[in-house]
From TrEMBL:
Superkingdom of the organism of origin: Bacteria
Organism: Acetivibrio thermocellus AD2
Pfam families from the UniProt entry: HHH, HhH-GPD
Name of this protein: Endonuclease III
EC number: 4.2.99.18
Catalytic reactions of this protein: 2'-deoxyribonucleotide-(2'-deoxyribose 5'-phosphate)-2'-deoxyribonucleotide-DNA = a 3'-end 2'-deoxyribonucleotide-(2,3-dehydro-2,3-deoxyribose 5'-phosphate)-DNA + a 5'-end 5'-phospho-2'-deoxyribonucleoside-DNA + H(+)
Residues that span the membrane, as ranges: none
Function, in words: DNA repair enzyme that has both DNA N-glycosylase activity and AP-lyase activity. The DNA N-glycosylase activity releases various damaged pyrimidines from DNA by cleaving the N-glycosidic bond, leaving an AP (apurinic/apyrimidinic) site. The AP-lyase activity cleaves the phosphodiester bond 3' to the AP site by a beta-elimination, leaving a 3'-terminal unsaturated sugar and a product with a terminal 5'-phosphate.
GO biological process: base-excision repair, AP site formation
Record note on cofactor: Binds 1 [4Fe-4S] cluster.
UniProt record similarity statement: Belongs to the Nth/MutY family.
Residues that hold [4Fe-4S] cluster according to the record: C189, C196, C199, C205
Cofactor(s) required, per the database record: [4Fe-4S] cluster
Ranges for domain HhH-GPD: 40-187
């Protein structure tokens, strides 16, 4: 039996061929824009978020602008992303803290990021990996689904998945591997009907091998 580290090594080789340029699919120009886009992306597609932020980031240019925003107006600005009451409140409060505690700059460490409203480990790892180049394991719905199907983990707890993947995925690959899981999840390993017959990593996937018997 191949151990999990070896399995990941082989999967990464294939993913590096298929999804060499995998990256965050949110549009952003700086850490603050990525932070806000990630908050808006909860229960919403990245494509829809990108439509909303195209206008949003012209109107609100920095953390101070968001901190001073009229809450009702901000709600309307982000309404198409859903759950807009809660998202607007979190964004405004987050930006107030960024202005007051962090000099208007998004913090670049997990501990400080987790003090921001609406920011959990998943969002923090997106910011660290994509805005600051600090490797992190992002456990979104794709990472959760694929890592369980492949047989890399056996839990639905995002924090456990994060720490278990940290043990078996090479650190320099953490951020890229999570983007590659998203790409593969969207293209092949879909939630309702995975296309195992088209899967390039079928030889390393417990679920795939079982279902293609």
């Amino acid at each position: 039996m191949m151990d999990k580290k070896e399995k990941v090594k082989e999967i990464i080789k294939i993913f590096d061929e298929l999804y060499r340029d995998a990256q965050c699919t949110l549009d952003y120009e700086n850490p603050l824009q990525l932070l806000i886009s990630t908050q808006l992306a909860a229960q919403c597609t990245d494509a829809r978020v990108n439509v909303v932020t195209k206008t949003l980031f012209k109107k609100y240019k920095d953390a101070r602008d968001f901190a001073n925003a009229d809450l009702k107006e901000l709600e309307q600005d982000i309404k198409p992303t859903g759950f807009y009451h809660n998202k607007a409140k979190n964004i405004k409060e987050t930006c107030k803290i960024i202005v007051e505690k962090f000099g208007g700059k998004v913090p670049d460490n997990m501990e400080d990021l987790l003090t921001l409203p609406g920011v959990g480990r998943k969002t923090a790892n997106v910011i660290l990996g994509d805005a600051f180049g600090i490797p992190g394991i992002v456990v979104d719905t794709h990472a959760k689904r694929l890592s369980n199907r492949i047989g890399l983990v056996n839990t639905d707890d995002p924090k456990k998945i994060e720490f278990e993947l940290m043990e078996i995925v090479p650190k320099e690959k953490w951020s890229l591997f999570c983007h590659q899981l998203v790409y593969h999840g969207r293209a092949v390993c879909k939630a309702r009907k995975p296309e195992c017959d088209k899967c390039a990593i079928i030889d390393y996937c417990d679920y795939g091998k079982e279902h293609l018997k």
